[in-house]
Design goal:
The protein has 2 helices and 4 strands, in the order βαββαβ. With 78 residues, the chain is an alpha+beta fold. The chain has a single domain, classed as Alpha-Beta Plaits.
């Protein structure tokens, strides 16, 4: 499995609702609120053979209240 980090910018006042919906989908291993340009960050393990974009689109990106996302791919753990 490949780990990716996904940051979420939410509509004002919707961060807790978005976070709850993300967690309820049971596809993230970790979820944190953050300061700065984005409101949340999640660690997601992509199953072998899955296309990252399609997996994330199906699993998370249709949640109401998400304004923008930023996905960071990972390559090697040290």
């Amino acid at each position: 499995m490949t780990a990716v980090f996904v940051q979420f910018r939410c509509q004002p006042g919707k961060t807790y609702e978005v976070a709850s919906a993300i967690w309820d989908r049971e596809v993230v291993s970790e979820l944190y609120s953050t300061s700065g340009e984005y409101d949340l960050i999640a660690k997601v393990y992509i199953p072998e053979g899955e296309d990252v974009g399609h997996f994330l689109s199906r699993a998370l990106f249709d949640i109401p209240g998400i304004v923008r996302t930023l996905t960071t791919m990972t390559f090697k753990a040290f």
